[in-house]
Amino acid sequence: MRLFHHRGRTAEAKRCRTLDSAKAEAQKFIRDRTEHQPHQREISLPEFADWSAAMRMLRGREQTTLVEAVAEWARAHDALGGRGTLADVTAAFARTVRETKLPAITVPALVAKFAVAKKAEGLSALYVDDIEKKLTRFSKTFRGHIGSINDEVLRGLRLLKKHQVRRPHPLGCRLPLGANEQFA
Asked: Whole-prediction pTM value?
């Protein structure tokens, strides 16, 4: 029995007496070629089975790679600190979202309800007027559902304000950022 392998452009052959000796020689050849090469290593059948099963689970989810999925799992596992599994936390989160729905109300309507409640509490007219003006300005920025406001939206708003250009006041005096809009 002869084994053939290619080294560059030349083919090399090796004679073996039995099938077992040919298999052993082939394994030795593979080991010699892959040893001390960091990008190659032998994987066991259970490791290959795990990889294959993971890849089957990811089929149909082209936007996610196996590395991204494992990295996300590792971050979640670290955040949990050994307190349950990712499936447990996901189920608890889904249950919480179902049980604690935000009211279907817009920001301007909520601001109006808040102003009425503060007047009913008997707070000073000056305080109520001040807070009502500030919240009305806020409600002009966010006209949609109250549930649409999250940290990311607020951070984006802060960045916008931070990079706004100060416009000179029509009368020539310098006012704090945002004050000029009252006179425009």
From this structure: 0.34
